[in-house]
């Protein structure tokens, strides 16, 4: 594909996660409970609502923001407000900001991940959109409750008497293969969303730095640096499958990795869209079986605008996206 001045990225995939307590929703007595949600599963030709452990999109997006700030600083970036610099992403208390341009110019975090300044009624939609991590539909997901204790010693080394001496608490842990989807609209990095011409308000080098950092942030995110309670329960995390698509024009989202046929359905959507719209795109895959790739190639027949690229690792998928972005953004 030829280089240009924009890039739209879509990802979907699956991660295997064992013994994780990444997203708690509160306590019931002395039990720290996992976040759970009801999802529809097809069972015997009908649908049933089933409660499953989930990792929320709020958590996933927060950790992409954290990794983005780190990557941005590593690339020499310095345009961060004092709140994003502290990895705090919430409603902006900066009452000096009375326009979208003010925030985009001054803060890469609010440029990429959006903001709301409620007093002045100024906002920007996030350029990064993420899903919940949901257990895949063709496998069971379970969680267990494990009992822990905190022991309090006296200065003499004895366990204190009474309730404070040994405090029991319980925490839930889940194991599942989770599916996800992510979208990044890097075309609008440094640009105003609500301006008719989407005017660029930062210099090209700064825009490239922000866009590259957004892609680099995917590496620690997909490597498992996400969620809470990792100091005592770092989960056994591994990327099983990853597919990514990119183009110089807007693309539809990929099908969520929760669904058993997400790869084939994503390929069908991209093939039809690229054929009808004339949009040239690449679909990059990792970990997808040969039989499924055969179906992908069949779905792509007749669509000259969509290319299929297989990679030996999920890290190579991200590297490919970064290389393409650098090629595209050089034309800014």
Describe this protein's structure.
With 332 residues, the chain is α+β, with helices and mostly antiparallel strands. It has one domain. It is 29% helix and 31% strand. It is built from nine helices and 14 strands. It has helices at 57-74, 82-85, 100-106, 108-113, 204-216, 218-222, 262-277, 290-300, 314-329, and strands at 8-20, 24-28, 31-34, 36-43, 46-53, 115-117, 122-124, 128-130, 134-135, 142-151, 166-185, 236-247, 281-286, 306-310. Strands 1, 2, 3, 8, 9, 10, 11, 12, 13 and 14 form a ten-stranded mixed β-sheet that branches. Strands 4-5 form a two-stranded antiparallel ribbon. It has a two-stranded antiparallel sheet with strand order 6-7. A hairpin with a 2-residue loop joins strand 2 and strand 3 (31-34). The radius of gyration is 22 Å and the shape is globular. The relative contact order is 0.20. The model has no long low-confidence stretch (mean pLDDT 88).
